[in-house]
Amino acid sequence: MDLRALIREVKDFPKEGIVFLDITPMLLVPDAFRRAVDRLAETFEDSGATKIVAAEARGFIFGAPLAYKMGLGFVPIRKHGKLPHTVCSVSYDLEYGTDTLCMHDDAIAKGERVLVIDDLLATGGTCAGMIKLVETMGGVVAGIGFLIELGFLNGREKITGYACHSLMTE
């Protein structure tokens, strides 16, 4: 199944010069969505992970069903001010600005193996921020997975030293 054929390109969103890859058309096709989650699950089935972290909002779309399929816990990483409990936070650069990610400070135990999942790897800032949160809590990154990688933005340079897998690369 050609998942890429189901991803729409939206020019100049969220700002001029950015080509946004809209995964919504792929999500509308149950077999395509299922295949994407299944392929990620197959990739990480031997990772020894006990939890998955994913950042809002599009990371949740893949992280939560992947955690369900693999029988793992799910840790939502949210933007500043969205979590009700004490948090650990990290600020990072995006390809078009800056942002802050937060995670409950009791979500990951020391030594726990964690998968970092997101829909897209662009410049690597969001992923590097998630990794920093996991490792600050004493967790071990067991693997990193994406639906799409924008290889021309060299995001992997910010996340070297980890097992990283993308279902498709642009």
Labels describing this entry:
170 residues, alpha/beta, Rossmann fold, seven-stranded mixed beta sheet, two-stranded antiparallel ribbon, 9 strands, 26% helix
Task: Compose a concise summary of this entry.
With 170 residues, this protein is α/β, with parallel strands linked by helices. The protein is built from four helices and nine strands, in the order E-E-H-H-E-H-E-E-E-E-H-E-E. The protein has one domain: Rossmann fold.
Describe this entry's structure for a reader.
The protein has about 170 residues and is α/β, with parallel strands linked by helices. The chain has a single domain (about 45-170), classed as Rossmann fold. It is about 25% helix and about 35% strand. The chain has 4 helices and 9 strands, in the order ββααβαββββαββ. It has helices at about 25, 30-45, 60-70, 125-135; strands spanning about 10, 20, 50-55, 75-80, 85-95, 95-105, 115-120, 140-150, 165-170. It has a 7-stranded mixed sheet, sandwiched between helices. A two-stranded antiparallel sheet has the order 1-2. Strand 3, helix 3 (about 60-70) and strand 4 form a beta-alpha-beta unit. Helix 2 (about 30-45) crosses helix 3 (about 60-70). The protein is globular. The model has no long low-confidence stretch (mean pLDDT about 95).
